[in-house]
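Sanity check record (used in CI):
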Amino acid sequence: MAEVVLFHHARGLTEGVRRFADGFRAAGHLVHTPDLFDGILPESIEAGLALIRELGDERDRRADRAVADLPGELVYGGFSAGESVAQRLAQTRPGARGALLYESCIPVTGEWAYGPWPAGLPVQIHGAEGDEFFGEDLPAARQLVELAGPELAELFVYPADAHLFTDSSLPGYDADATALVLERSTAFLTRLD
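Expected output for Dienelactone hydrolase:
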């Protein structure tokens, strides 16, 4: 069994994020889904990004508090804006077992980087080919796979055309692509056991 912390996207801790986490639970994994917005569900991605800007560093402090009492040996996962929180913790909190990065990826070199990718840390990155947000992050995702190496890092691009395609409670949901994301992610978690 893997223990996972899954961070929500800019629309908040939606029912779709909860259902995705339930897919991991059904496979026998322990999953935590902290609500970094304290119950707020923004009406749009833009409104969510505005809330993230308003929260500033408080969002990271909330994430740090959410994991403070959990063991270090966690898999960190996050969707879109939540991916940055997951990636930061995977790269900087000792003991990380893996990272599941959905619909976004932060560069591991340059001014936006949290530092180098930790040696030996496995990662999967998932995104939609028609997603303009993920399209901007695709070079960073490819760089991460190249730097970590194919034995540790995998990049999957799906024929979906919307951002947040893995969230069953939002209009851009793609059931077929999400089923494949869950299958691959669950296999990743199983390999970590």
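Helices lie at 15-26, 45-55, 57-68, 81-92, 132-148, 175-192. If this sentence no longer matches the regenerated tokens, the check is flagged for review.
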